[in-house]
Amino acid sequence: MKDSKKEGIRRDIRARYGEIASNQGSCGCSSNCCSTPSFIGKNPSDLGYSAIEVSSVIAGADMGLGCGNPNAIAELQAGEWVLDLGCGGGFDCFLAALRVGASGRVIGVDMTPEMLTKARENARKGEYHNVEFRLGEIEHIPVADASVNVVISNCVINLSPDKAQVFRDTFRVLRENGRLAVSDIVAVKPLPASILEDPDAVSGCVAGAALVNDVKNMLQEAGFVDISVDLREESARFIRDWFPGSGAEEYVRSAVITARKPRIGEAG
Known about the structure:
Blueprint: H1 3-22, H2 51-56, H3 71-74, E1 81-85, H4 91-100, E2 105-110, H5 113-126, E3 131-135, E4 148-154, H6 163-173, E5 174-187, H7 193-196, H8 199-203, H9 212-222, E6 225-232, H10 236-242, E7 252-260
Parallel strand pairs: 1-2, 1-4, 2-3, 4-5
Antiparallel strand pairs: 5-7, 6-7
Helix pairs in contact: 1-5, 6-9
């Protein structure tokens, strides 16, 4: 993909999610969600969040933009440093902050200034002192080499026009034996042109989905081991609601993606 096309995709996605943040909406992943009542107030339990998790975070942080619960698979420990790629309003960051405690640290990265403004205000209101938010693209993460224990992300990597670079840079920032724990949308078969060429499907977490084997290959080429892409078949139900009548649920699923950066000297 040419650099000009990649930047065009980023520009469109940045504008769309900036609009969502400015509207203070609680939307589904679809870019049409803010004007479609059926997306408003999507039940977090469908994505794997418990009632306790939802109630433990400041109201307004959950914008309904995810497709799973990365914290449920990250096995976070007290004192760990966590990086959230595409942090949005900060919901997953705040959940992570509660798990790693005062001795840990959470860094949220997002390329949309409006999202960061919302996340920082949420952090101030909720008094999350072990969380910070940085402006940047997930292909070029504004975090030092080998500085975090865990990288999480929720329905964001599929939006990147250069996923291989996302995984390479994720590998760079992880410490030895660091973990990747991601909820994302993946393709179970090649997408038709009617979806690939739909701008709403691009910014709505569908058209950019990579095939399962391609995700595994990109992770392996980046250097990761213990790679797993576990499909959530039940996700077809809520994906159907993102683009009614499009048949998107026939081609994509939410997946739990995990991997690990090997220890120094460990065979890959």
